Amino acid sequence: MGKSRVLITCGLMLVGACVPLASLTLAAEVVPAPETLKAASDKTFTDMVNNRCEKCHNSTDWAGSLAMDTLDLSHAGQDPEVWEKAIAKLRSRLMPPAGASQPAQADVDNVVDYLEATVDSAAKEQKNQPVGHVPIQRLSRNEFAASVKELVGVDVDPKQILPTEIEVDGFSNIAGALVISPSFLEQYLSAARKVAQRAIGEPVAKMENVFYRGGGGGGGQAGPGSPTQLTHKDGYPLGTRGGVSFTHVFPHDGDYRFNFLEGDSIDAGLYPRGMETRATMVVLIDGTEVARREIGGAEDLALADRDGPKGRSAVIAKVSAIPAHVTAGAHEVTVTFIERSWAESNDPTGSGRVSGMPIIRDGVQVVGPFSPLGLSLSESRAKIFVCQPKQESEETRCAERIARHLATEAFRRPATDADVQLLMKFYATGRGEPGGFDSGVTELVIAVLSSPDFLYRAIRSSPGATRPLSDFELASRVSFFIWNQGPDEQLIGLANKNQLSEPAVMKSQIDRMLKDPRAESLISNFATSWLNLGTLSQIEPLDPTFTAAMRTNFETEARLFLESVLLGNRNVTELLTADYTFVNDSLARQYGIPGVYGPQFRRVTLKDENRWGLLGKGAVQLRTSYSDRTSPVLRGEYVLDRILGTPPTPPPPGVNTDLSVHEGQPPATVRARLEAHRANPTCKGCHGVMDPYGLAMENFDVTGKWRVVDAAAKAPIDPTAELDSGIVLRGPPDLRRYLTRRPEQFPTTVTKRLMMYALNRELEYYDMPQVRQIVRDAAAKNYTFAALVTGIVNSDSFRRQGPEAPPSKVATKVASIGAPGTNATKQ
What we know:
alpha+beta; single chain
């Protein structure tokens, strides 16, 4: 019988008698390894294909460009590309299509187990199993920022200095999408120059004037725009209230002045209400007080009130030109007020509004340096200047040491003599400038940061064959995976001794790296990208109670929660099942959690089971809503894509997907509008799968509040949803139990996404047996995050490079990919 190797692209779903979730028999054991698997027989598999799949997928109809009657079902392992697609569709019940006759859930599970075992056994027997190829790639802007921070100690905002990345499935580090153009290169070179100048400072002092805007407002009253100006702010010294904090790069050792601009910068408006009460302003640098000033009280109030603009300027002058001696480099500057007893407020109304308290409305101006004294050894200069010449004759030898030191770390391998000689040409050019030695080193640093050896990552290929990564390639790959930057001295040292490829050595390095603070990049770059929680600013709810602070609370809660599970090395399924979260007083009120006071975030146990795990987080609910309403479609799509790992097929062109209530129509619940939409058989094929997951979360509004009534339709919310398998979900707890009914299901999704992030490429069918082996091995360690990371690093997909392949799927996507998380249609 001839064999077809084309891919399955159709959808797949399940229908049957209504089965309450509580009566569903859940898998109690991990799926065993293929060689010991006691799963469905060949007959169970062939019966499902012959009686269900071939009705559409046959050599006459060719649904989804697939004819299963041309496949040898007795040797399914010979067609892994086809059956991996089928496994993914079956796991998420995307096949058979919604509305078609559905097999029982137990039969689907058995066929999935059978196919996985068959494909995995065939892969194990294959001598030349394919290995993916990763082309040369430039550093992403996040990788660039992290690398220069480690290399020269300079913090940069990559979104401000480098162009926007093209994302693939939310990830900005996929090699095929990291294209380069003259415009990109120009911006990277410009960023390299700025970084070098900030790291070393100005060899020749220049007067600077920089203004840092604050977050004031409110005229000294407690109101929607100003509560943080009247209360303690996180990160500020205890016993203070309000203020402005920022990091300023001081270009030179010397004296600086801190000013407030004339006008209303210290709340001295037409009626200077903020001057009613005397207050003490303090200026701190790196947490150490350098100055304090008194402002407000009867004298300042009378001056500002009596003399108008001139008087207000005189009041501002009292707290301007505040002097401080500061060394070169980046320092945190905080300007705040010492807290005083609220009982002393002169507002007798008891209304909760506090008057007469000075606040910083606009921000702080930094001017200097005055009387420059040179450049001391700042943190960034200490990373660069591994030696200091005492006389001119020592300068060249010291510059060579600096060049070799920086190049070794930046190029992710030991620097060669040729590398050093090339860099010294740039040093010589800068040495002739007025800044002398420092100017020469500045040019040297720019050359390092502009070098292709720094800006690009490459793994060598062997024509027509796979090859193991060298120790240096392995050091670079594992470092960018876990830290989002190049390897440190210890990794390079082990690679130089050819020891890093040894399993025991690599295991100890993974353990070390996961405990390092730099591993936080797995949260900020991997987890938030996978879960699409890094783009909350794209949603601006029309809810009048929504504020920017609420969005920040959602982001903080999500980050702390992800850290607690992933970097806390817990079972990754706890991302769905954990009965705790992190809240401050504001977020606790949003969630209806009593007994939480103060702006600090702390861990709390959740008594309300609806709030457990990711599905109870405000960040997820905001991300999966529109500005004016919730969307069960977006929420259902989120569950299929981010949780189950199988994104649904986009709607066909020309299909009407507008669920808005148009003028003249009576208000209707979102559920009612979706039911009318699903009446169309074309729509039901996908919506029959997605909508039930989203409807189970419909009690959460756009901002994560729990509700029982649809305010627009003035009708009760019914979260009950029936899956095509016949399983009934009655809210978030049922949905969570369904998603975790097979213990390996969610760890498999995590592993697939994590492996894609680690390899810098999309996964192929031949990667899936390794994914399943990683998950099986992790079962013995309770599916901890560290076990998944270790399994990925030890896999052939990670440790080997395949031959150069034809242009990947990514190349065809690049031209059409838009901003992450955007939706072309509104449903």
